Amino acid sequence: MTVEMILHHHIASVEKLALTTSGCPLVIQCKNFRIVHFIVPRERDCHDIYNSLLQLSKQAKYEDLYAFSYNPKQNDSERLRGWQLIDLAEEYKRMGVPNSNWQLSDANREYKICETYPRELYVPRIASKPIIVGSSKFRSKGRFPVLSYYHREKEAAVCRCSQPLSGFSARCLEDEHLLQAISKANPVNRYMYVMDTRPKLNAMANRAAGKGYENEDNYSNIRFQFVGIENIHVMRSSLQKLLEVNGTKGLSVNDFYSGLESSGWLRHIKAVMDAAIFLTKAIMIENASVLVHCSDGWDRTSQVCSLGSLLLDSFYRTIRGFMVLIEKDWISFGHKFSERCGHLDSDPKEVSPVFTQFLECVWHLTEQFPQAFEFNEAFLLQIHEHIYSCQFGNFLGNCQKEREELKLKEKTYSLWPFLLDDQKKYLNPLYSPKSQAVAVLEPNTVSFNFKFWRNMYHQFDRTLHPRQSVFNIIMNMNEQNKQLENDIKDLESKIKQHKNKQTDGVLTKELLHSVRPESPTLKTSLCFKEQTLLPVNDALRTIEGSNPADNRYSEYAEEFSKSEPAVVSLEYGVARMTC
Amino acid sequence: MPATQSLKKRKIVSASCDSGTSCPAGVASCPASSCPFRSPRSPRLKLLESALLLGPRPTAGGMEFSELIRTGRAQAELLRGPGAPPLRGTLCVTGHHLLLSPGPQATSDLWLLLLRSVDSIEKRVAGDSGTITLRCKDLRVLQLDIEGVEATLDIARSIEALSSLESVITSFPFFYRPKGLRLGDAWHFHPPEHYYKRVARETNAWRLSEVNEDFSVCPSYPRAVIVPRAVDDDALARSARFRQGGRFPVLSYHHAPSGTVLLRSSQPLTGPQKRRCAEDEELLRAVLAGARPGARGFIVDTRSAQAAKQARMTGGGTEAKAAYPGWKRLHRPMERGRPLQESFVRLVEACGDLEQSMDRWLSRLEGCRWLAHVKEALSTACLAAQGMEREGACILVHGAEGTDSTLLVTSLAQLILDPLSRTMTGFQELVEREWIQAGHPFQLRCAHSAFSHARPKHEAPTFLLFLDCVWQLGRQFPLSLEFGEGLLLALFEHAYASPFGTFLCNSEKERCLCEVRTRTHSLWSGLNQPKEQRKLRNPLYVLNPLAIWPSVEPQSLRLWQGLFLRWTRPPEPSEAAWEKVWQIVTDKEKTEGSQPTVSASEPQP
């Protein structure tokens, strides 16, 4: 019997169902899309469990979250080294900034201009501090245009900000200057794109509230473009609908597809992807810089900037590069992880699967370009697991300032070193970094390229195949190849050594002994033995050959008095919990 | 693509032949006709023979191909969709092929298309040139831009006439003589005796009956069938008279671990009077008696209870409970015939639209119901397999004719239960035994694919549905099938249009009359050539001795993009990835293989 563990922080909702003859059913829905059914024999116990879980899953303060008590038995310096693993200054250097056109600004060093931005921001060299300060006053939450990604070869920039406070007619000269400075920082192309990632209607409605979007007439050399990604509330209810469809028992094919359609989930995924492609094309084809914003510039803007960077730069498609990308465009630029993931007992209207959508877009890219990514699906799923787990400090809080106040680097651990230690699990065996064809990804967003991500939304449902990843098997074969090759080299050098000794005429017993244990047959059988722990073996076979009772096509139960063996399936079956 | 091979490698048999002869020269030069089935030629068979030779359209057989070719050649440009560069050159129509030969400076080979694989043709003229759009049975869409209006119209008419010839023995397989293959090779890979040998090793309750040796008991069964030992040939013949098309219950698969069997037949002819047949009842009784003691039986009817009842009005029906003690009926309605064909057509239509919105695509995917058919087929097969493996019951599957959904269920159930059928040869044997020899009317069902404007008469993509289900199994159990998507795609292509004779005709009887087995090449010998293996095999295969129970949840079933979107998306990334998998796997074999050489060079003390 295995013990199933569910983190309290993963609990999204607990529901007590009507009493049955066998006990009181308790359904726990998790944020990682796991659904667990319990039957508690006594109703009183059930009620107690229900209440405890409700309390435990909703914490009032950060200090009560798991990360503050999680102790992986590391000392302070190890922990600190973990936090230093990803260095954004190093990353900007890699991109090629600062340079003659872009510089590091100290305007926000004390979080005086914008509380939700990081301390270190890169801006055009010709943009003076008064211009920056002026522009920040004209932007929602003070989030003025700053550099997100610099394309060294094209000398074009991806910048990000929030919506301007333009209302119906307001202007801001400093803001206009700053945008001009951004387009001037591109020596090749004088015009730049301003991408408003919202649907046009939403942006127009914002004008009534004194916000809105850039008026093309007021800014020289900008090309304005709406790309129509829906807001966090639409996304939240879309996912809710998707989960409802998936939770239906005995779902028919038609209900599944009509549910998938009416949830709109894949349409939203496609919209995010299309926006990133628009950005990529502006840079690659037109050599133009792009400024991206939405309302506050921390949800859709993060999605589009990060996904665009991923398409443009193969570094972000490596394991470490992907960590850097998340640190840069999501964590440092103030994507409100704690609110969006509901880490604390706060406003449920702030919860939204914005980051999940980003991961899903990346998954779609890995499906279309199986050789372009160093990491595999498990890596994405693991990151998704941890944005909710609150086990590590990376995703706690809503912006850098808040994280500093929480002293996360002193009190909690960073996730990244733990993922790197486990790197083997997350490697894509088909990755071929040298292939020049995949330098810039050009995904095809024809509707039928978007598929339901079964392994995300049914990760924990044992009854839905395939349960094993082909990639793991290939990975192991690859490993085995390497090991065998090393063995061969090893043996060959030993033989050479041996032969040399032989020609010297010294053949001692010790020497023979030193060769013997390394004899190839022994070594091979050894590594095969190790291999048997991994997929190509009997243990795996029992996984592949499955139980028909897992699946719902049986009609015999009613035909025979003999009843079906009890099914313990996490999602639909019944697990007993004795108290 | 077997249909578009380089001409440089082989000579095409000329399509023209002496006028007046009823069969082309190519055929006359074939080895003397001898039927491998030793069937005596009754006068009735002779009659049918002449009908087949001439084909349903009397003009086609005796006519020279040259009469159908209006224009020999024209200058044209060929557009082959995304990923393939356009080709320019001289277009030429022959009896069986459309050729495009690039100019002398071009580096590419001759381009060749089997006319039989053209499903629909559309012509447009503007100014002094024209455009022909060819939609192929393998779902490819080709566009030809041709110089000259007359030439365009003539070529279109020629293609139209030649691609729809219905005569079997003037079809290309009778002319196809590839290098490296010998006629008659591989035909005897899977005769009924072959499977019977295996059954006989497992149980002695069954025998091989030659009651149908001259195809007179059941025209759609092979010469030999496996039946209960306790039932004699006379009883079989009488049972056959009680079943539609003479398809009496025969063994499809013996499941040794549980000692149960899978049978198939057609519907009993109970009719409105609820007729009974003692020999038919005796046959099913003998089945239970020969299985493990105390075994019960299930009849899986692939029609709804209501449809089965209605069939009585037209002379059909279903087994009455009282007449077959120990047997119970289960109804699992499965779509067949025209609705299935329409579903296929609508899916292909939806897959051709690159501009549609996400919502439109999902609603069309739902509306075409194709994946619902996949789910139905898989879950009915699972039901049959589960009845044998888990409940220890014998299973008889039938619908009405017993040549379509019945075969779908029995063949899939075997794949689920039988590890041997998941090997390369085992699967080929399964297709041969459960589809070709079992009398699935390929010629009728696969006359047209999804593009034809003609109203479907007998067309239905039952075999494609089978291949799709196998693909789903392969996706859910990535290590358990020895063959890969490549084999399934090849079978789809060849079932609809092929230079090989394997899928010709509707039954063994017809194949025998047309001497398909002696005068055409077998697809299996074509596929089993070493050079084809990398495309067809699954590099990750490891023998899995267990049953593989697929998930039939809609979340687990996926659209078979490799088939339905094969020509609309650039194939490079996935093909490159496949190549990489092969590299890793063969690398593994290489390093493993090189071990002994190292040990051999180890100095001996």
TrEMBL record, chain A:
Residues 467-501 form a coiled coil. It holds the Pfam family Myotub-related. Keywords: Coiled coil, Lipid metabolism. SMART domains: PTPc_motif (SM00404). The keyword Lipid metabolism applies. GO terms for biological process: lipid metabolic process. Residues 82-457 form the Myotubularin phosphatase domain. The active site is at C294. Substrate binds at N231, I232, C294, S295, D296, G297, W298, D299, R300. PANTHER family: MYOTUBULARIN-RELATED, MYOTUBULARIN-RELATED PROTEIN 6. Belongs to the protein-tyrosine phosphatase family. Non-receptor class myotubularin subfamily. This is Myotubularin related protein 6.
Automatic annotation (TrEMBL), chain B:
CDD domains: PTP-MTMR9 (cd14536). SUPFAM superfamilies: (Phosphotyrosine protein) phosphatases II, PH domain-like. Coiled coil: none annotated. Pfam families: Myotub-related. Residues 186-564 form the Myotubularin phosphatase domain. It comes from the Eukaryota. PANTHER family: MYOTUBULARIN PHOSPHATASE DOMAIN-CONTAINING PROTEIN, MYOTUBULARIN-RELATED. Belongs to the protein-tyrosine phosphatase family. Non-receptor class myotubularin subfamily. This is Myotubularin phosphatase domain-containing protein. It comes from Equus caballus (Horse). The gene is LOC100055965.
